[in-house]
């Protein structure tokens, strides 16, 4: 299933960002930087007439655990902080018109080196891995191996006091 990630421009060079890593691991995944409709016009053209589904929580979202998508379906994700992704959503009414998917039972996040303000916050890589596993039966391990390597690399470059702080916050 093709995965299209609409990424906030401020996330493009983020060292801890997982959207780029997701696109490197998955064969059919593209990043689309931007915020407003004009920025995403090329994406909309690329989507064509194939059905597209937005993975983003909402009151009418269907749980990925109980959903079967058509063969030509495409999965769209928003990458950025909750505030930035909400802004992208509000600036792009066409996204709000797409059928939404979400998680009935979100897995526990494994992103120890990032502060999350919500218990159900997942990185883009984690959300993609879980969604593809539930929707298509894909093996998420290649994504999780790359994710683990990213985390270990980030931890190796942190001062010891910072590493300890992240570890103590996760207990």
UniProtKB/TrEMBL annotation:
Q: Where is the DTW domain?
A: 1-159
Pfam families of this UniProt entry?
A: DTW
Q: Which InterPro entries match?
A: DTW, DTWD2/TAPT
Enzyme Commission code: 2.5.1.25
The protein's UniProt keywords, in alphabetical order, are: S-adenosyl-L-methionine, Transferase, tRNA processing
Q: What class of enzyme is it?
A: transferase
- Into which family does the record put it? Belongs to the TDD superfamily. DTWD2 family.
- What protein am I looking at? tRNA-uridine aminocarboxypropyltransferase
Please name the source species. Answer: Ferrimonas gelatinilytica
């Amino acid at each position: 299933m093709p995965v299209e990630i609409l990424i906030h421009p401020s996330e493009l060079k983020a060292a801890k960002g997982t959207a780029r890593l997701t696109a490197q691991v998955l064969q059919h995944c593209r990043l689309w930087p931007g915020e407003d409709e004009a920025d995403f016009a090329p994406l909309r053209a690329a989507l064509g007439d194939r059905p597209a589904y937005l993975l983003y929580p909402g009151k009418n979202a269907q749980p990925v655990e109980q959903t079967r998508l058509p063969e030509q379906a495409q999965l769209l994700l928003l990458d950025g902080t909750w505030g930035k992704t909400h802004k992208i959503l509000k600036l792009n009414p066409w996204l709000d018109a797409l059928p939404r998917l979400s998680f009935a039972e979100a897995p526990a996040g494994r992103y120890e080196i990032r502060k999350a303000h919500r218990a159900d916050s997942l990185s883009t890589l984690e959300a993609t891995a879980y969604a593809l596993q539930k929707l298509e039966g894909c093996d998420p391990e290649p994504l999780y191996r790359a994710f683990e390597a990213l985390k270990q690399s980030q931890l190796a470059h942190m001062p010891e006091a910072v590493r300890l702080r992240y570890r103590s916050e996760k207990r």
